[in-house]
# Entry
Amino acid sequence: MYAIIETGGKQYRVTSGETLSVEKLEAEAGKEVVFDKVLAVKADDADALLGGPYVSGARVTAEVLGNGKADKVLIFRQKARKGMRKLRGHRQPFTKVKVKEIEMGGK
# Structure
């Protein structure tokens, strides 16, 4: 069974027991978080339930493992023949979650 969820402006395909990094959530490690914006759910023996835009009653429950920052991304700008050079960096914050349960809803 898998589900497609939306969080932080991105979509993720998740299965039960899977660990993934999502955009930073305001939750502490050890807490439980529920994703209710489920776009689609597919069971092994049934047809996929597609939402319009979300599947009503479907939820994905996950446990927060911790928060962190991704690797640094360097941004370099230079203008030719002007001597202008800028080097900046950015580390995107994320939350690591482990999917515990996928609940199917009905349309």
User: Anything to note?
Assistant: The beta strands are 2-7, 10-15, 19-23, 32-35, 38-42, 49-50, 59-69, 73-79, 84-90, 93-103. Residues 2-67+96-103 form one domain.
